[in-house]
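W.,

You were right to be curious about this one. When I first looked at the sequence I had no strong expectations either way, so I just let the prediction run and decided to look at it fresh. Below is the sequence, 121 residues in total, followed by the output.
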Amino acid sequence: MDILILRVWDEVESYFNSEPAESKRANAREWGVIYISIGSPTNLELTVLLPGGAPAVGYTVKLVDGRMTRDTDALGKVEMTTTLNGELRIEVQLGADTSSKFETTITVVESVTYTGTIQLT
């Protein structure tokens, strides 16, 4: 059975090998291939702002590839820690309202605190 699992894993990796790392991880996950990042943790300090510039209070911020979610505080701020680095996808939405979903990409360097603002449109 282990040989079969390894063969499927190798085939999935080969099939998605030409895609960027983030896309490869997401597509491989659908086939049961899960990557575990082992590296130094990186802090993400994000501020989410509404279109007029006011803090986005109570919004959910999701690190898509890392599957971590946090809610913004009264100042629209959220802090996360991840061992992923490179280009990471962030989703922001108000509660369960998927029509309010906003996506962006940030570039994270391992062990270097990322501080940034997400301006919702």
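Here's what jumped out at me. The chain has two domains: 1-35, 42-119. And, maybe more interesting for your project: The first strand starts at residue 42 and ends at 49.

Coffee later to discuss?

I.
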